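Would you mind writing out a protein's amino acid sequence and the numbers that encode its backbone to help me picture the idea?
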Amino acid sequence: MSRVIANEVAPADDPALADPNLDLEKLTAHWKAYAARHPMTAERMRGADRRAQRLGVPGGYLMEQAGIAVAAAARAVLNSIDRKSSGRVLVLAGPGNNGGDAFVAARHLTGYGIPSVVVLVAGDRQPGTADATANWAALEQLESVERIQVASGHEALLLLNGIERASLVIDGLLGTGVSGRLREPVSQAVEVCLSARRAGVPVLSIDTPTALDLSSGAPSQPNVRADLTVTFHRPKEGLITRSGRVHAGRVLVAPIGLPAEADVG
C-alpha cells in the first residue's frame, strides 16, 4: 500500500481551494510548505511519475490533481487583479499531458463560473495521449467552454484578434523535454502568449513556461514569459536559475498526490 507524503493534501481533497475569495497571496501562503521542498530535475520528476503509476496511481488521477491546482491558481490570479476583460480565459494546450492538465483546468474553471476558450494547438485533431484525449473530450458538452483546434501557424496567429480582451492566458503548450527551436503551430501560439502579456493580460504557465528547460533553465526559441508558473510536487531546478526566474515569474508548487515511495532515487 502506497502512502501519501506526510502533511500533503491533494487538490481534489483540499477545501481551501474552494474559497471563492482565494487570491494569490493566500494561495502562496497555503502552498508554502511545498515550495520549501528540495528542488528536483525534470528527469527525476518523470521518474517519480512513472514509479507512482507502477505503484497503482493512475496517470489520469495525477492529471486531475494538476488541473485542479491550475484552476485554483487561475482563479486566484483573477481575484488578484483589476482589469476590464471579456471574462473569458484563453487556454492554449499542446497535444501531450501538459495540454491534458490544461483541459482539466478548463473543466474546473467552469465550476467557478469562469468561461474559457480552449485551443488544441496540434497538427492532429486529437491529443497524443489517452489521458489528454479523455479530458479534451470531456469539454465538448460544457456550454461555457469553446473548443478550437489549430493545426497551422496562420490559424494560431488568428487568436491574436481581440487578445487584449482575454482575462487570462493559460500556457499548457509544452512541458518538459523541449530542445531546439519550436515548430509551428506551437511557435506561433507562443507569440500569442507574448502578445497577450504585452497587452496587459496575465499569463499562467503549467509546470514550466513553454520552451524553458525545467532542469537547466535554458530557454529554446521562441519562449513564453509568464507572470505565474504552477509547477508540481517540488520546485524544479530550472525554475530557480536566473533565466528560470525571469521566464517563470512567480512560482507556486502544488501537490498532486504522489506517493512517498515514488519520490526516491
Notes: The chain has a mean pLDDT of 94.
